[in-house]
C-alpha cells in the first residue's frame, strides 16, 4: 500500500485541471511531474502586477531589461546563445519588502508559467522521493516552458554545504545544481530559477554563482514609504488632516508589509471606535427609555391617588403643574 496515494491522486487532479487552464495540452507528465504541476500558477490568474508594487521602480526597470525582455522578444534573436534570460535570479532582503510580489509580477509580465515551490515540497518527502521530485521540477519546467521556477526561502534547502549534511540532502543539492546546469545545454530552453531569501549569507556559494542576477530588496526609505502608503491608501476615505509625508518620516525601519498592517490597524481602529460609540449611544438611549418608563409608572401611581412616602424629587420636578397640584391636594 502506498501511504501517499491519496495525496498523489489529489495532486494529479489539480495538475490536470491547471494544465488545461493554462493551455498546455497533449503533454504527457510523469507521476512526479504531476505532483510538481500542482504548484503551477497560471500567469493569467496572478493578481500582482507592477502597479501593485510601490517604491521599487529601479529594481523593476532592471528586471524588465534583464529578465523580461529576453523572454518576450525571443523571436528577435531566436538562435542567439547570448540573448537569453539569466538562468538564475536572486531576490534578497528583509522579510515583507516585496520579494514574492516581484517574483509574481515578473511571471505575469513575462507571460511565463510559474512554479511556486516551497523548499519543504522537496525536502519533506520519503527517502528517494525528494530526488525524483527535484528531477521532476526541471523536466516539467522544460516541458511547459517558458517557465520560472520560484523557490521561496531558497537558503533553507540550498544552504552552505557542510560535513553535517544528511547524505540525502547533500545528494539532492548536487542533483539540483547539475539539473540547473543542464538547462544550458540548449540555447532555446527558456527556464529560469528565481530564489528569494532573507539570509543570502547562508546560501551555498555554488548556488550564488548560478544566480548571476541579484537584486537587493531592502527596507524602504522615507520617499519609498510615502509611495507605499499612497498605494495602500488609494481609494480609501481619508481625512484631509492626514499627512503621508509625516507618517513616512515617523515609520523608519518599517517594511512594506509593516506599513500595510499599520494602515489596516488604523482602519480597524476607526471601525472599532465607531462601533463602541454606537454601543454607548444605544446604552444611553436604553437608560433614558428606562427612566421615562419609570417616571410614567410613578405618574400612574400618583394619578391613582396614592401618596408615595419617598417620592423622588425628580418626579415632582418632571411632572406637570396639574399633577403636582393634585399630588399636593391629595397630600393635604
Ligand atoms: N513595495 C511594496 N509595495 C506595495 N506593497 C508592499 C511592498 N512591499 C511589501 N508590500 C506588502 O507586504 C506584503 C508582503 O510582501 P512580500 O510577501 O512580497 O514580502 P517578501 O519580501 O517576499 O517577504 P518574506 O521574505 O517574508 O516572504 C505584500 O503582500 C504587500 O501587501
Automatic annotation (TrEMBL):
It catalyses: [protein]-with a C-terminal TM segment(out) + ATP + H2O = [protein]-with a C-terminal TM segment(in) + ADP + phosphate + H(+). Gene3D superfamilies: 1.10.8.60, P-loop containing nucleotide triphosphate hydrolases (3.40.50.300). It comes from the Eukaryota. It is found in: Mitochondrion outer membrane; Peroxisome membrane; Postsynaptic cell membrane. It holds the Pfam family AAA_lid_3. Its main location: mitochondrion. It is a single-pass membrane protein. This is Outer mitochondrial transmembrane helix translocase. Residues 85-223 form the AAA+ ATPase domain. It comes from Ataeniobius toweri. Belongs to the AAA ATPase family. MSP1 subfamily. Keywords: ATP-binding, Membrane, Mitochondrion, Mitochondrion outer membrane, Nucleotide-binding.
Amino acid at each position: 500500500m502506498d501511504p501517499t496515494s491519496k495525496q498523489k491522486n489529489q495532486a494529479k487532479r489539480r495538475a490536470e485541471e491547471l494544465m488545461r487552464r493554462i493551455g498546455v495540452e497533449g503533454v504527457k507528465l510523469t507521476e512526479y511531474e504531476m505532483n510538481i504541476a500542482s504548484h503551477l500558477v497560471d500567469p493569467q490568474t496572478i493578481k500582482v502586477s507592477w502597479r501593485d508594487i510601490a517604491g521599487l521602480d529601479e529594481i523593476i526597470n532592471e528586471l524588465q531589461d534583464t529578465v523580461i525582455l529576453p523572454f518576450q522578444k525571443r523571436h528577435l534573436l531566436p538562435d542567439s546563445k547570448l540573448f537569453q534570460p539569466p538562468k538564475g535570479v536572486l531576490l534578497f532582503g528583509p522579510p515583507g519588502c516585496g520579494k514574492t510580489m516581484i517574483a509574481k509580477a515578473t511571471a505575469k509580465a513575462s507571460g511565463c508559467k510559474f512554479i511556486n515551490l516551497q523548499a519543504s515540497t522537496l525536502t519533506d518527502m520519503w527517502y528517494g522521493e525528494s530526488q525524483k521530485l527535484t528531477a521532476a521540477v526541471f523536466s516539467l519546467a522544460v516541458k511547459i516552458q517558458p517557465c520560472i521556477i520560484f523557490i521561496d526561502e531558497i537558503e533553507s534547502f540550498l544552504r552552505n554545504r557542510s560535513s553535517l549534511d544528511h547524505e540525502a540532502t547533500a545528494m539532492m543539492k548536487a542533483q539540483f545544481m547539475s539539473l540547473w546546469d543542464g538547462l544550458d545545454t540548449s540555447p532555446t530552453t527558456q527556464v529560469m530559477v528565481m530564489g528569494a531569501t532573507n539570509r543570502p549569507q547562508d546560501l551555498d556559494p555554488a548556488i550564488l554563482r548560478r544566480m548571476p542576477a541579484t537584486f537587493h530588496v531592502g527596507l524602504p526609505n522615507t520617499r519609498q514609504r510615502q509611495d507605499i502608503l499612497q498605494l495602500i491608501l488609494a481609494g480609501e476615505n481619508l481625512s484631509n488632516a492626514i499627512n503621508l509625508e509625516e507618517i513616512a518620516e515617523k515609520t523608519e525601519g518599517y517594511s512594506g508589509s509593516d506599513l500595510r498592517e499599520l494602515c489596516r490597524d488604523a482602519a480597524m481602529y476607526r471601525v472599532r471606535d465607531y462601533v463602541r460609540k454606537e454601543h454607548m449611544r444605544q446604552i444611553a438611549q436604553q437608560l433614558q427609555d428606562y427612566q421615562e418608563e419609570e417616571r410614567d409608572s410613578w405618574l400612574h401611581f400618583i394619578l391613582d391617588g396614592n401618596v408615595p412616602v419617598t417620592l423622588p424629587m425628580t418626579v415632582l420636578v418632571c411632572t406637570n403643574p396639574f399633577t403636582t397640584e393634585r399630588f399636593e391636594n391629595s397630600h393635604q
